Q: What sequence folds into this?
C-alpha cells in the first residue's frame, strides 16, 4: 500500500506529538507504590524522559519551538490518579529590571506588568502554587533611581523565593540588603558571602505547597566567564556551588519533601549539579538568556529556564498523593504576549518611576564619556559626506523616533540606547536640552571626535566591528532575535566608495583640547 504524502506528514506529526507527550511526563508508567514520601517520580527507567535530553535546549526561534507549541496546544498531560491532587510550580526568567515591556518593535512582550497579569490569572484558578524567580531581577547596571521601584514591583509579584544573581550585586551588598529588608523580598543564596564571611541572604527558604514542604535555595556560579561585568566579585566571596549545595542539602534532609534550586550558572554546570545530587527535584535556570522549551531530564532532576524579560513563565504541573508522593504531570508556558493587558498596579509603579526620573536629575556618578566628548553625527559630515548620507538612511539615524512612536520617550532607560551618552559628561540630557544628541550617532561605533584627524588618531575598527559593541544595546531583552551579522550589514559602510573627502574651504573642526605640539627629542651631549 502506498501512502499519500499528506498522510505521511500527518503520521510524522502524530509521532512527534506522542514523543513530546512522553518527554513531558504524559507517556511514562509511574510506580507510585515504590517511591518514598516526598519523592518526585518521573516514571519508568526506560522512559525517554529519563534519558539525556540536552537536545531540547533550543532557542525561541528554532524549529523545535513549533513542535513545543504544538505539544502545548495539544495540552498533553498525564491524568490524575485516584486520591491525587493538583499543584503547580510557576517559575519566571531573568527580568533585567523590566517593570514594563520595553516597547521595542522587536519585543513588545513581557515585563513584570504583563507577567503578573497572566500568572495572577493562573493562581486565581484555585490550584495551589509556588512561584519562584531565579535571579537577574534587576538591571545589569546600578540604576540607583530605578532599583527601589523594581523592588516594589517584585514585592507585588508575590514570588515565594528570589535567587541571587550578578545583577542583584552590582550596586553593592549593603544597598541590596537594605532594599530587600525594606520591601520584604524573599532573597535566597546558599553560596554568596560578604567580605567578612557573612551570608548575603538566607541560605534557603521552606514553603508549603498544599501539604508538602518545599525547600528552595539558589546558587551563583563561581566562574568569572559567566559574567559580563565582574566588578561585583570584588565585594563578595562565592563558595563553590557544589560545596554549598552539599551543605544546604544536608540541612534540608528530613525537613522537606521537594527541593528547588534557583541557578545562576551555566547549563552544563546545572547538569553536573543534578547528577551529583539526585535529591534535587527541579533546577530553574536564570543565568542564561536562552529559554529551554522542553524540560531537560538529568537523572531524577528536571532542568528548566523561562528565558528573559517575562515573555514566558513556565509551569511544572504536579500531582500529590495522600502520602505526599509528588509526580510530574506535565509542563507548559504562560505567554505574556503583546496583546496581554498590563497589570494596573504595575502600571502605577512604572508611572511613579517615570515621574521621579523627571523630577530628579540622573546620577550615574558623572561617568566620563566613552569618546573624548559627545558630538552629533553632523560633526562628521564635512569629511565623510558619502558615509554620512548612507548613515542617514539607517535605523540608527531615526532611533529617537522609535521611542516616540512606542510612547517611551520619557523613559530614561530607553534613552541609554536611543540617544548618546546619557548619564555621562557632555552626553544627552533630554530632547529639550540636547536634541542634537538624540539618535544613535557615529560615536556609538567610532570612539573619536571630529578633530581626530588633526591629532593623527584613527578610529578603532576592532571596537566598531565587535559583536559586543552592538550587544550593549541589542540585548536578549530589547532585541531577542538580534542577528549581529545581518544587523551589521545594514549599518556598515562597506558599500560606500569614498570613505573620506577634503572638507569644504574654511572648515575647521572643533578642537576638543588644544593640540599640544610634540616635545623636541632630547639632544645628545656634544662630544668633547
A:
Amino acid at each position: 500500500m502506498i501512502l499519500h504524502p499528506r498522510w505521511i506528514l500527518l503520521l510524522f506529526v502524530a509521532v512527534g506529538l506522542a514523543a513530546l507527550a512522553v518527554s513531558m511526563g504524559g507517556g511514562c508508567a509511574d510506580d507510585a507504590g515504590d517511591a518514598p514520601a516526598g519523592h518526585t517520580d518521573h516514571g519508568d527507567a526506560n522512559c525517554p524522559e529519563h534519558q539525556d535530553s540536552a537536545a531540547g535546549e533550543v532557542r525561541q526561534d528554532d524549529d523545535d519551538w513549533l513542535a513545543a507549541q504544538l505539544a502545548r496546544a495539544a495540552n498533553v498531560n498525564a491524568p490524575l490518579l485516584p486520591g491525587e491532587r493538583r499543584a503547580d510550580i510557576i517559575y519566571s526568567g531573568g527580568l533585567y529590571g523590566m517593570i514594563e515591556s520595553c516597547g521595542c518593535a522587536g519585543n513588545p512582550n513581557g515585563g513584570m506588568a504583563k507577567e503578573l497579569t497572566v500568572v495572577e490569572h493562573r493562581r486565581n484558578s484555585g490550584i495551589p502554587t509556588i512561584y519562584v524567580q531565579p535571579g537577574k531581577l534587576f538591571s545589569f547596571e546600578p540604576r540607583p533611581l530605578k532599583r527601589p521601584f523594581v523592588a516594589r514591583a517584585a514585592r507585588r509579584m508575590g514570588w515565594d523565593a528570589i535567587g541571587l544573581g550578578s545583577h542583584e550585586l552590582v550596586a553593592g551588598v549593603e544597598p541590596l540588603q537594605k532594599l530587600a529588608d525594606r520591601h520584604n523580598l524573599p532573597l535566597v543564596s546558599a553560596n554568596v558571602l560578604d567580605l567578612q564571611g557573612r551570608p548575603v541572604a538566607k541560605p534557603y527558604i521552606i514553603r508549603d505547597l498544599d501539604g508538602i514542604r518545599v525547600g528552595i535555595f539558589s546558587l551563583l556560579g563561581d566562574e568569572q566567564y559567566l559574567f559580563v561585568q565582574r566588578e561585583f566579585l570584588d565585594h563578595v566571596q562565592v563558595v563553590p556551588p557544589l560545596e554549598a549545595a552539599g551543605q544546604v542539602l544536608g540541612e534540608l534532609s528530613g525537613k522537606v519533601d521537594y527541593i528547588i534550586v534557583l541557578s545562576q550558572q551555566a547549563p552544563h554546570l546545572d547538569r553536573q549539579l543534578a547528577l551529583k545530587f539526585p535529591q534535587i527535584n527541579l533546577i530553574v535556570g536564570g543565568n542564561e538568556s536562552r529559554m529551554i522549551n522542553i524540560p531537560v531530564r538529568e537523572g531524577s532532576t528536571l532542568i528548566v529556564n523561562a528565558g528573559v524579560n517575562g515573555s514566558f513563565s513556565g509551569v511544572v504541573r504536579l500531582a500529590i498523593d495522600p502520602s505526599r508522593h509528588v509526580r510530574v504531570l506535565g509542563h507548559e508556558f504562560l505567554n505574556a504576549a503583546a496583546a496581554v493587558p498590563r497589570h494596573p498596579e504595575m502600571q502605577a509603579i512604572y508611572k511613579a518611576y517615570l515621574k521621579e526620573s523627571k523630577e530628579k536629575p540622573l546620577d550615574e556618578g558623572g561617568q566620563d564619556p566613552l569618546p573624548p566628548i559627545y558630538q552629533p553625527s553632523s560633526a562628521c559630515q564635512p569629511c565623510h559626506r558619502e558615509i554620512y548620507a548612507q548613515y542617514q538612511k539607517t535605523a540608527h539615524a531615526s532611533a529617537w523616533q522609535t521611542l516616540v512612536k512606542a510612547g517611551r520617550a520619557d523613559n530614561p532607560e530607553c534613552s541609554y540606547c536611543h540617544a548618546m551618552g546619557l548619564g555621562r559628561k557632555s552626553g544627552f540630557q533630554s530632547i529639550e536640552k540636547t536634541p542634537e544628541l538624540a539618535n544613535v550617532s557615529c560615536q556609538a561605533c567610532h570612539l573619536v571626535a571630529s578633530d581626530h584627524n588633526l591629532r593623527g588618531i584613527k578610529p578603532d575598527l576592532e571596537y566598531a566591528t565587535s559583536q559586543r559593541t552592538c550587544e550593549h544595546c541589542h540585548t536578549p531583552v530589547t532585541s531577542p532575535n538580534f542577528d549581529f551579522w545581518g544587523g551589521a550589514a545594514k549599518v556598515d559602510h562597506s558599500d560606500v566608495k569614498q570613505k573620506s573627502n577634503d572638507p569644504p574651504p574654511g572648515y575647521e573642526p572643533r578642537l576638543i583640547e588644544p593640540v599640544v605640539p610634540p616635545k623636541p627629542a632630547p639632544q645628545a651631549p656634544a662630544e668633547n
The longest strand covers residues 326-335. The chain has 15 helices and 15 strands. Residues 38 and 254 are 10 Å apart (CA to CA).
